[in-house]
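Input structure tokens:
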């Protein structure tokens, strides 16, 4: 089944990107085969490598210190999280299209950039992906994080073990919950299917977006309890911390 899906995605990619003078996001003309985005789309893309970022979660920080506000307040279970972009503008639109509009060809595209980011990270032994909510998965035709992890594994050579991290219960959408509420809500949501595959390993956990780190923490906690040495997080994008004003 996966082989058929891979061939289908490759076919779509070959048609979409055969003309390299097209914007990856909107399809408008660009002026060089080295450009991935048109001028309008590129203006709303922020890469984390161009920002000063939190040394724990890779979120852009603008004040003094080495940690963002969330990492200052919480002790994380994972070792370090890395992201390619900030979750805004063009990138947020593409991620939503991948998740909710069935644009599967974006998974291998983003995986390519995850592989580039991984070159600056500690070496890991295995890759796992964050399983989606079982209820929400019924309304999608694919598991986008699984596609990301598979494409990443194929391009990087790091072994991907499908189904190693599994979801035990459905959770409500977390968008409107505080960091503390997210952590409480996610307790007991995940489990490891094979302890032998985890023990003594450095694990890379792949997801689409890093927000407060609650999901990453719960997954990392479960993985480390099964004997993993270290857990690193790699996502397409990280949200920026927004200070509430009165």
């Amino acid at each position: 089944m996966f082989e058929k899906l891979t061939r289908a995605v490759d076919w779509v990619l070959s048609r979409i990107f055969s003309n390299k003078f097209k914007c990856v996001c909107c399809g408008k003309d660009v002026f060089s085969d080295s450009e991935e985005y048109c001028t309008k789309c590129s203006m709303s893309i922020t890469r984390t490598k161009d920002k000063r970022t939190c040394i724990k979660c890779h979120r852009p920080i603008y004040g003094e210190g080495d940690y963002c506000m969330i990492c200052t307040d919480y002790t994380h279970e994972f070792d370090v999280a890395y992201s390619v972009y900030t979750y805004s503008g063009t990138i947020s639109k593409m991620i939503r299209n991948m998740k909710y509009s069935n644009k599967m060809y974006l998974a291998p595209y983003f995986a390519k950039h995850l592989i580039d980011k991984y070159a600056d990270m500690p070496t890991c032994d295995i890759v796992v992906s964050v399983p989606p909510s079982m209820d929400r998965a019924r309304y999608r035709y694919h598991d986008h994080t699984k596609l990301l992890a598979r494409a990443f594994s194929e391009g990087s050579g790091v072994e991907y073990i499908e189904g190693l991290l599994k979801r035990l219960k459905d959770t409500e959408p977390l968008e409107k919950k505080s960091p503390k509420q997210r952590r409480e809500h996610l307790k007991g949501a995940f489990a490891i299917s094979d302890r032998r595959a985890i023990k003594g390993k450095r694990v890379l956990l792949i997801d689409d977006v890093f927000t407060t780190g609650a999901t990453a923490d719960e997954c990392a906690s479960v993985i480390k309890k099964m004997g993993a040495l270290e857990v690193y997080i790699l996502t397409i994008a990280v949200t920026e911390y927004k200070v509430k004003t009165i």
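Confidence is low (pLDDT under 50) at residues 14-19. The two ends are 53 Å apart (CA to CA).
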